[in-house]
Design a protein that fits this description.
- The chain has helices at about 15-25, 30-45, 65-75, 85-105, 125-140, 150-165, 165-170, 180, 210-230, 235-255, 290-295, 300-310, 340-345, 350-365, 390-405, and strands spanning about 10, 45-50, 55, 65, 110, 115-120, 210, 255-260, 265, 270, 275, 320, 325, 375, 380-385.
- By secondary structure, it is mainly alpha-helical.
- The protein has a single domain, classed as Glycosyltransferase.
- The termini are far apart.
- Mean pLDDT is about 95; it is low at about 1-10.
């Protein structure tokens, strides 16, 4: 936008239903209780209601809202969406995200006045808000979140994705520092959607980031259902469904490689020209998180092969220390582990023992403030990055709820119509 919007003083958020749920949690482990409660309350702590009635949800110690982070921070509150105060909060988050997308679909982070904080095009930033809105609808049956304004946001998402399916010929997005005058390296025609940055906000090496493509398949399926069932826009529903199939076919054709040790595995990034990058980043979407995203079953053979590689020393981002072992990121110091990757390991595991180990490692990562952080030294958790980071703190209670059988996992769209060639 040309100039900032005038915004009146905002109001802090207090959700009695969330506060009650936090207060009533008792596990018999005082450390776990404290971490759970602080994690569950963290999202409302980062939020405030703005003059326009929408909720601005800050990522933590950086004064901005990320489309990705705010969606993930709100996600655990879906389990309590039958409570009117929580439902209203979630709808207010979704309404603001819809406005952000219409402001600039290439931006990943915004300020309270709707000006841009960062304009790094990350495909997952368009997928996360769609997934949040769809899950809210499926969890509550409340279609009122799908306003005419939100319809315009969905149309913007679809139009942007369509353009980026053929980035070299149809897209005008550039970013300083990227090759080829800011337009990126050459890519092949794959049916997948071009992206410039990873969910870590770091540059991609190859512009088809497979975890983000997986999330796009899920989000496009959700968009197709919303367009068809709620808005009765069969043309847009068909466009979303066609793109979903194209992206899926691109993943299956270009995003799976043969590894001598592990067999058929998902690559992290590809360019459609024969080059690929094999690693995994702690940020979500990640390859490890594929079942959590709803793209593939945790029992799928290619995913199982990939998971074995990711949780081993053959993954350059995997580290082992005295207090934990897990995946880190090039975004943080070498050898540091991200609680987010541990949470994803637990959320995608069918093993009670593995989930319990992950929870113990997360508790061990606490440097003494009762919170999870961006990353930590697995040999000395007091060495950490980002003292205030909402995302992992919000997801920790979800992991605990699932591990203890307190909640069923959130709904994901069916992929039965997709052809997984195994």
């Amino acid at each position: 936008m040309d100039r900032p919007i005038s915004v009146q003083p905002s109001e802090s958020v207090h959700l009695p239903s969330i506060e009650a749920a936090a207060a009533h949690f008792h596990s018999g482990d005082t450390h776990l209780d404290a971490m759970y409660r602080q994690g569950l309350l963290n999202t409302q702590k980062q939020a405030r209601v703005e003059k326009d009635g929408t909720v601005y949800l800050q990522t933590g110690d950086i004064p901005a809202e990320w489309l990705r982070d705010s969606s993930a921070q709100t996600r655990p509150y879906l389990y309590f969406a039958d409570k009117p105060d929580v439902a209203k909060f979630i709808k207010q988050v979704i309404a603001r995200q819809g406005k952000y997308i219409q402001t600039d679909p290439y931006a990943n982070a915004f300020r309270p006045d709707f000006t841009l904080h960062e304009r790094k095009f990350e495909l997952d930033s368009l997928c996360y808000p769609v997934d949040l809105a769809w899950k809210y609808w499926k969890k509550t049956g409340d279609k009122s979140v799908f306003t005419p304004e939100y319809k315009r946001a969905l149309d913007t998402v679809l139009d942007t994705m369509k353009k980026e399916q053929d980035h070299p010929h149809h897209a005008d997005y550039t970013f300083r520092g990227m090759p080829n005058g800011g337009k990126g390296n050459p890519v092949g025609s794959t049916g997948m959607i071009w992206t410039a940055f990873r969910p870590s906000d770091d540059n991609v090496k190859y512009n088809f980031l497979i975890p983000s493509e997986m999330m796009a398949v899920v989000a496009l399926g959700e968009m197709a259902e919303i367009e068809r069932t709620v808005y009765h826009d069969q043309a847009r529903a068909g466009q979303a469904q066609t793109m979903r199939r194209q992206v899926h076919e691109g993943i299956e054709k270009y995003g799976i490689v043969n590894d001598k040790k592990y067999g058929r595995i998902y690559a992290f990034e590809v360019d459609g020209l024969g080059h690929y990058n094999m690693r995994d980043d702690a940020n979500v979407p990640s390859l490890l998180s594929a079942p959590y995203l709803g793209y593939v079953s945790a029992h799928d053979s290619v995913y199982r092969n990939t998971r074995r590689l990711l949780l081993s020393s053959d993954n350059p981002d995997y580290s082992v220390g005295k207090f934990a072992r897990g995946i880190g990121s090039v975004h943080t110091p070498k050898g540091y582990i991200w609680p987010l990757s541990l949470i994803m390991q637990g959320m995608t595991s069918s093993s009670k023992s593995e989930r319990s180990t992950v929870v113990k490692e997360l508790l061990a990562s606490d440097p003494g403030d009762g919170r999870l952080h961006e990353s930590f030294d697995p040999n000395n958790p007091k060495r950490l990055t980002r003292p205030d980071f909402g995302w992992p703190n919000a997801l920790f209670p979800e992991l605990v709820m699932i591990d203890r059988g307190m909640q069923r996992p959130l709904p994901v769209p069916s992929t039965r119509d997709l052809n997984f060639k195994r």
